[in-house]
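Researcher: Structure prediction, please.
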Amino acid sequence: MIKLRSRKGFTLVELLVVMTIIALIIGLAVPGLAAARKVASRISDTNNARNLVLALNLAAQDSNGLYPTGASSTEVFEELVHNRYIDDERVFAGTNTPNPPKIDPGNLPAFTLDPRNVAWAYVDNLTTNSPSRCPLVLTKGVKAFTNLGVVSPELPAMASADSPWGPDGVVVGTVGGSAEFIKANPNGTVDLGITGAENPVLSPSY
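Model: Predicted structure follows.
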């Protein structure tokens, strides 16, 4: 009588086939996961910009329609905390920007921002009467098409490798309270849709 030996485990060929299938699945899934992470980051940045604009509008309403001013966006944003317009430090952060230190409600005057923890530039010299589509905050590192470092009504901005979003585009929060990710044109420019006078762009700095 012939005894059949029971087969245990996989052959080398079977293992190679399984490994190949797994590699193919991973290869298909990774780009999708990367794209999903990018979309999630854009949504998070857009929400932060919207909340930051809301705080700036509240501050302007208490100052006869004048938005806060300062030497840098860091200074302007610190004042928003000191004056109790912002109680969540995460709104200052964004893609590739670590969260700032926590706000201590019992010691607001001591709160300071490191520019490395701030994802936003601030457009100065605006009022609540400025055109609603005019950018109030935008992704830091975006370059303007003038030598004066201003947002111009005639010329688009340039998406920059120095920006957290690089050449892909810009997250913009407007005077009217909206916020969106604006994709860069093929030549790297970003149409901000500005009308009105030129306004300095304050970047995060000490």
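Model: The radius of gyration is 24 Å.
Researcher: Thanks, that helps.
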